[in-house]
Design goal:
- The structure is a homodimer.
- Helices cover 32% and strands 22% of the residues of chain A.
- Chain A has helices spanning 10-17, 21-27, 35-43, 75-81, 119-131, 149-155, 169-177, 216-221, 239-253; strands at 2-4, 29-33, 48-54, 70-73, 90-95, 109-114, 136-139, 164-166, 182-186, 192-193, 203-208, 224-227.
- In chain A, helix 5 (119-131) runs parallel beside helix 6 (149-155) and helix 5 (119-131) runs parallel beside helix 9 (239-253).
- Chain A starts with a strand and ends with a helix.
- The interface between A and B is large, with 38 and 38 residues.
């Protein structure tokens, strides 16, 4: 275990840069924070480059950290790396998932995301997709960076449970079509009531931006547009809530 | 229309105080922000005390503001009152809803909240309850203040569509029992799969704190504990997403 006391140490400077999307994309690495996320990353064999711990943090005996290098830092350095008000003593630098990890095949289930902007919404969608047994989450262009700290925290480890990858939606749509996977898009207009949907064993659900929804181009590519019935006076549902309702409905009604 | 240019004006000072829960509770009033929320408040006849507009904001002709007094303020004052990065030119001071507005009666649908802490989660639950046609949302002790600006923004006007009131959960539970309304509580332990639930025409759904869930006391009071099946590797769902899935499931399966 190596110890760092100066915040001008080059490693510390490099880790701080990972708080920006630009540096994350350049290096293909990202930071996660807190014992729960680090434990999930370890348990699911994520590509962990280093652990970073605060001086008084005890690594739990149950963690199998193998040969992953550990850096010990001061409380002040940990604070400077953390995006939360109360840092929890442990972080990790991880390598990003590869889009090769997504395989389109008959019977599989996907969530496709077109331009969701709020990090909390994206994280919650990933967690929800995981709960609903989805095989992979595809992030189309214009979607907020999944390696943003707030996305990671909201996703609560689900990014380590299933592939969550950036991909051209065109490629994802073709992957679905070529494998008989029914592609549903959420839409408030010219859409069928979700309760009438009858997916094949596999399905893909395409959800869109908080304000403008799924882009016309992808609505046209969908096999069917679905709407969640509104029984009250709200105009629409939050995108993460809508994803949850639809995934469990499709799960329920598939042949 | 009266105009205020000085931020030491007593009205401005009073409005600023409404950014604290203490002052909101003392006065029974709260601030809302942005044209969408103000329009919803006007459309649903909320108790609006004043409108506050920035000097270059044009009140849309479609707004029926009746005799509500309007104060015009400088851009600087508006910024000092706003909790958002980009103030949208209009705010309103409103009076809080009364718990008398909740009526327990056979066939009605309720959401009961036990200690939800995140303002975004509470706002999203209210929006979701509105979408699902719930009759009222009951806020038990320990739940984040509904008049917090972030709750209001996440609820997107739904607080004006249905009663959302603080109430002792004991009273709410009794209201349900006395009217034959099936009370379901969410729980990860000793719970039935939600797909087996078969509510009466009326039902109440009790959801709990993000970390600790529904308190033991209320779990015992419930007619049935429900769990959403997890098909993947996530441990649980976000509370607002879970509320959405359960409300639409109960809506679907009720007799």
């Amino acid at each position: 275990m190596k110890r760092i006391e100066s915040d001008s140490n080059p490693s510390v400077k490099q880790w701080k840069k990972l708080l920006t999307k630009k540096e994350r994309e350049k290096t293909g690495t990202f930071l996660i924070e807190g014992p729960h996320l680090v434990e999930e990353a370890l348990s699911y064999n994520a590509d962990i480059h280093h652990l970073i711990i605060e001086e008084n943090f005890q690594i739990p005996g149950s963690w199998d950290k193998g040969r992953i290098p550990v850096w010990q830092v001061t409380e002040k350095i940990m604070k400077s790396l953390s995006e939360t008000e109360k840092p929890q003593g442990v972080m990790a630098v991880c390598g990003m998932a590869d889009s090769d990890s997504v395989v389109f095949a008959p019977g599989k289930k996907f969530v496709l995301i077109d331009g969701v902007q709020d990090p909390g919404n994206l994280g919650t969608i990933i967690r929800t997709a995981d709960s609903a047994g989805v095989d992979a989450v595809i992030l189309g262009e214009g979607t907020v960076d999944v390696y943003n700290g707030k996305v990671m925290r909201s996703a609560q480890g689900s990014v380590f449970h299933l592939p969550v990858v950036k991909m051209d939606l065109k490629e994802a749509v073709e992957g679905c079509k070529n494998n008989g996977i029914t592609l549903y898009a959420t839409s408030l207009k010219e859409a069928s009531d979700m309760r009438e949907a009858s997916p094949n064993h596999g399905f893909a659900l395409l959800v869109g931006n908080e304000g403008s929804g799924v882009k016309e181009e992808w609505l046209k590519a969908a096999d069917e547009k679905l709407i969640i019935p509104i029984f009250g006076k709200a105009e629409s549902l939050n995108v993460a809530v809508a994803t949850g309702i639809l995934l469990y409905e499709l799960q329920r009604t598939r042949k």
